[in-house]
Design brief:
Number of strands: 23
Shape: globular
Helix content: 25-40%
Radius of gyration: 25 Å
Distance between the termini: 81 Å
Largest sheet: 7 strands, mixed
Number of helices: 15
Oligomer: single chain
Length: 473
């Protein structure tokens, strides 16, 4: 059968653009389908880029507040300036994902919604196209939980909060995950009175418990955090919203000018007509195997829509694997054991692999845990940023199974551990690398030195060394 395209990509976010660009570079006839006006996906328009621009602006305001007092009028001005800065950052980055760039690669760009007619046929707006292979990369959107009254108020999500231009006096945030805590801290630093409602025992429930505890203690200095708190009902008021919630079995109320719902994401698959293509889903996400193939071998799914790890760098990784498999006929498999993520709060949180609780369940007595408090490192002492911890989890032979840290800039200096793990090197090898003093990543080297202290100086080998020194040296 003759097809219009060798490969059609549905979705112009990080994963989809990676696949489209790669396929075109390999010489495949490629179609890229995006229903929204601009390319770049959620990361560019609603996620990574605007949130990090906002976090940086808020950080600068917070630092300045240590040296001068701001009035409400000052915060109003700083807030609107921060939001304009966010819009400018998104516009600048948008140029890198311009439509012309992909059209110049020879890719046919369709600006419409795609719906499967059969396993190889897509209706794209008013047109119908066929493709030998198809990659679904439709991303995700905010999940709004079925809280009574939530549909009757104008709640904010991570897709709408960046449209604010006037500073709200107060805000209730439902959800203490990554998105909720990052945005809550930024809002607080820009003069908003923030209260976070989190249903779990702690915020950032996917993080290592000890790391999350430090993060919560630090964040509580800047905002009100209520854990074990469940939102039951939301009501509209003359000045904003009222949230009725239950904490520890007791009903309470909160009133605020704005409500931000940050309770997770859901895969964008509902309008694709996947049933016409025979593509299976689970809880709304496209089911894929390790090679990112769906239940139809010629159809792949990458990024948030397949329910793996909801991060832009993961979508990019999956896109590279999918394009090599779809275009070149390879059978590369996606692995998630060596993928880190960062929570861009202050201080930052770095996460790689298993948490200590997970690692103990898997490795038991064979697990080694190495910790260094930032208060014991010269650079952090000098900067007066001593709140934080480095925690590395290894097997008895030094294979890294988990790495976690909370501290100023942790997302940068902890990646050394991720690189060592990705290269299949042992944790103790970092101890042999000379680090410039007093770079922040000295704290990583300092922690790796603990491996030798554990394995050498507390062992029979050290007894033999002492005997040798005393007798022969």
């Amino acid at each position: 059968m003759d097809y219009d395209y060798q490969i059609a990509v549905i979705g112009g976010g990080s994963g989809g653009l990676t696949v489209a660009a790669g396929a075109a570079s390999f010489g495949a006839e490629t179609a890229l389908i995006e229903r929204k006006p601009n390319l770049g996906g959620d990361c560019l328009h609603y996620g990574c880029m605007p949130s990090k621009a906002l976090i940086q602006a808020a950080k600068e305001v917070h630092t300045s507040s240590h040296y001068q007092s701001f009035s409400n009028e000052d915060y109003d001005h700083l807030f609107s300036g921060a939001m304009e800065r966010v819009a400018e950052a998104v516009e600048d980055v948008q140029n890198h994902d311009s439509k012309d760039r992909f059209i110049d690669m020879g890719i046919d760009l369709y600006e419409a919604e795609a719906v499967f007619q059969d396993p190889h046929t897509l209706r794209v707006g008013e047109k119908t196209i066929t493709a030998k292979r198809i990659v679904i990369a439709t991303g995700s959107s905010p999940f709004i939980p079925p809280i009574q009254g939530v549909d009757e108020v104008d709640c904010l999500t991570n897709e709408t909060i960046f449209s604010l231009r006037q500073r709200p006096a107060s805000m209730v945030v439902i959800g203490g995950g990554i998105i909720g805590i990052e945005l809550s801290q930024a809002m607080s630093r820009l003069g908003v009175d923030v209260t976070v409602l989190e249903g779990n025992d702690t915020i950032l429930a996917n993080e290592d418990e000890e790391i999350a505890g430090i993060a919560q203690q630090t964040a509580s200095r800047e905002m009100n955090i209520l854990t074990n708190a469940k939102a039951d009902r939301i009501e509209k008021t003359q000045t904003g919203v009222k949230v009725v919630y239950t904490k520890d079995g007791v009903e309470n109320t909160l009133e605020a000018e704005q409500l931000l719902v940050a309770t997770g994401r859901k895969a964008n698959t509902g309008s694709l007509g996947l049933e016409h293509a025979g593509v299976e889903t689970e809880k709304g996400a496209v089911t894929v195997n390790a090679s990112l193939r769906t239940s139809q071998n010629h159809i792949y799914a990458v990024g948030d829509c397949n329910g793996s790890m909801p991060f832009t760098h993961v979508a990019g990784m999956e896109g590279k694997i999918a394009v090599s498999n779809a275009v070149l006929g390879l059978s590369r498999k996606a692995s998630y054991e060596k993928i880190p993520w960062v929570v861009y709060t202050a201080p930052e949180i770095y996460h790689l692999g298993l948490t200590e609780k997970e690692a103990k369940e898997k490795y038991g007595d064979k697990l080694l845990t190495f910790k260094t408090k930032l208060e014991n490192n010269d650079r952090f002492m000098a900067e007066r940023n001593t709140t934080g911890l480095v925690k590395i989890l290894t097997t008895s032979r030094g294979r890294i199974v988990g790495a976690h840290a909370v501290g100023e800039g942790a997302g940068e200096w902890m990646q050394e551990v991720g690189t060592v793990q990705a290269l299949n090197k042992k944790f103790q090898s970092i101890s042999n690398i000379i680090h410039p003093y007093p770079a922040r990543n000295n704290v990583v080297s300092q922690t790796s030195d603990l491996y030798w202290r554990e394995k050498l100086f507390g062992s029979r080998v050290n007894d033999l060394i002492q005997w040798y020194v005393k007798k022969w040296r």
